[in-house]
Write a structure and sequence with these properties.
Largest sheet: none
InterPro entries: 23S_rRNA-intervening_sequence, 23S_rRNA_IVS_sf
CATH topology: de novo design (two linked rop proteins)
CATH architecture: Up-down Bundle
Oligomer: single chain
CATH superfamily: 23S rRNA-intervening sequence
Number of strands: 0
Shape: elongated
Organism: Candidatus Roizmanbacteria bacterium RIFCSPHIGHO2_02_FULL_38_11
Number of helices: 4
Pfam family, one: 23S_rRNA_IVP
Helix content: over 70%
Protein name: Four helix bundle protein
Strand content: under 5%
Radius of gyration: 15 Å
Order of helices and strands: HHHH
Length: 119
């Protein structure tokens, strides 16, 4: 697998994570807490992919690692906001949340691995 193909796959994966997060929040009850937490989730989940794109266009190795660290931080933050939203114990929403949390954890681990292997 070429570096370009690998890069594209992670760009696509982070894009899909942000997209699925947006679809998920549209299904939540519109309580004050959910509205505020959803805003934070949308920002954090989108920031993962946006910073990964920035990392791939980095001007230096230092810039690359800074962006990858931000990706990891935003993936962790996404997990936090996912845990906070209220699904009203609806099974479908609970399952979606668990899938998104799992993806956030996997993205956190991927970015952590990139940092460890290249530092």
């Amino acid at each position: 697998m070429t570096k370009t193909k690998h890069k594209f796959d992670l760009e696509e994966r982070t894009f899909n994570f942000a997209l699925k997060s947006r679809i998920f929040v549209k299904k939540l009850a519109k309580t004050l807490g959910n509205i505020e937490d959803s805003i934070q989730l949308v920002k954090a989940s989108g920031s993962v992919g946006a910073n990964y794109i920035e990392a791939n266009e980095a001007l230096s190795k230092k810039d690359f690692f800074m962006r990858i660290k931000i990706c990891r931080k935003e993936a962790k933050e996404s997990c936090y906001w996912l845990r906070l939203v209220d699904t009203n114990n609806k099974l479908e929403l609970e399952n979606e949340r668990e899938d998104l949390i799992q993806e956030a954890i996997e993205l956190t681990n991927i970015f952590g691995s990139i940092i460890r292997k290249n530092s």
